[in-house]
Structure formats: structure tokens, C-alpha cells
Design a protein that fits this description.
four-stranded antiparallel β-sheet, mainly beta, single chain
């Protein structure tokens, strides 16, 4: 992200420009991995509850998706709104993350597609600065 840009939510990801790294947490007591990072381990059987920040894998496999063909309520902001897809992606080790899909034709999305995490502009804030989010794009060559 450029200095003038900001993430849609603090602590969600870091980026070097186009690529993004999702920031999660691993419980040192039970090993559960979370995204986004919670305040504490949510496993009721875990007694340690201490979390360590982890960077999640940058590539995964699309395991489900839906296409949003209606405009969401105003809490959700997106410049140049158009129908878009949201996918559930397996990043391995039981980690599944939901996010917008980018670079797919909406009527030709295939379960099992390899994807990578990218950073993309979502909207421009009231001060004119771009606000970015992570998305999943096709991972060529995987």
C-alpha cells in the first residue's frame, strides 16, 4: 500500500503493493488458528488462551463461492459497484478464509481453483484516500 492508502480494517493484512499477507493468530494452548485475529482463543476446551500473531499462507484453493448480484446496505462501501463474488478459500492446515474474488468471470468460477491473496482498492474515503482490502485472485501456474 502507498503511504496515502489504508486498509479497510487495521491489522487485517500487510501488503507490498499488489500482494497481501493475511495476519492471523495461533493459540499457544490448543494450536487453533484464527483470521481475523480475535482477542482470545475461542476454543471452550482451551485453558491457555494465549495468542501469537502469524502470517497466513499467500495461496490456497477455492472451496466455495457465491455471487452478490445486489448492492449491499450502506455499511459496505465499494467504488464503482458491480456484482462480485465472495469465495471461501482453504489456506491449508484447516484454515479457511472468506474474501472477495478478483479476476474471475462471475459465470465461470470453478471450485478447486488455485488462488492467491492480493491487495486491491475497495473505495475512496471522504478525504480522497484509497481504502484497500484483500481479495483472492487466480494463482497462475499453481
Amino acid at each position: 500500500m502507498t503511504e496515502a492508502a489504508r486498509a479497510v480494517a487495521e491489522g487485517l493484512f500487510v501488503t507490498d503493493g499488489e500482494n497481501a499477507v493475511l495476519l492471523g493468530a495461533r493459540c499457544e494452548g490448543c494450536g487453533a488458528v484464527y483470521f481475523p485475529r480475535p482477542l482470545s482463543c475461542r476454543n471452550p476446551a482451551c485453558h491457555e488462551k494465549r495468542l501469537t500473531a502469524v502470517e497466513l499462507p499467500g495461496e490456497g484453493t477455492l472451496i466455495s463461492y457465491t455471487v452478490q448480484r445486489y448492492r449491499p446496505p450502506p455499511l459496505f462501501r465499494m467504488d464503482d459497484w458491480a456484482p462480485y463474488a465472495i469465495g471461501l478459500v482453504s489456506l491449508g492446515d484447516g484454515i479457511e478464509v472468506m474474501g472477495m474474488l478478483s479476476g474471475f468471470e462471475l459465470d465461470h468460477i470453478a471450485i478447486g481453483s488455485p488462488v492467491r491473496v492480493i491487495c486491491a482498492p475497495l473505495y475512496t474515503d471522504d478525504a480522497g484516500a484509497p481504502v484497500h482490502t484483500y481479495q483472492f485472485a487466480p494463482a497462475p501456474g499453481r
